[in-house]
Amino acid sequence: MAICLYIKELQKPIGTVTEAQLQTLIELLEEEDSEDQDYYIDKDILDYMEEEGAEPELLALLRPHVTEDDGVEIEWREEK
């Protein structure tokens, strides 16, 4: 089963991530509850993720969607 990331507001696909990369998102980013599947990512959060050892491939997937001034709300879902 593939784990796909989307820009939440636009439902625009960003790409797929591995189970380990998804676990990194879950561990490093804030969730409102156990069923939460979305995260706000901005430049500071990307820097934090990098400092905490997030895989370069995951950061490279997210970085093009974040500007110096604006972040992006992403969500993940499992797809067949």
Set out the fold topology.
Blueprint: E1 2-7, E2 12-17, H1 19-28, E3 38-41, H2 43-51, H3 56-62, E4 72-79
Antiparallel strand pairs: 1-2, 1-4, 3-4
Rg computed from alpha carbons, rounded to a whole number of angstroms: 12 Å
Shape: globular
Count of helices? 3
**Termini separation (Å)?**
5 Å
Structural class: alpha+beta
Largest sheet: 4 strands, antiparallel
The helix fraction, in percent, is: 25-40%
Task: Please characterize this protein's 3D structure.
The chain is an alpha+beta fold. The chain contains 3 helices and 4 strands. The protein has a 4-stranded antiparallel sheet. The model has no long low-confidence stretch (mean pLDDT 91).
What is the compact description of this entry?
By secondary structure, this protein is α+β, with helices and mostly antiparallel strands. Helices cover 32% and strands 30% of the residues.
Give structural attributes.
single chain, 80 residues, alpha+beta, 32% helix, 30% strand
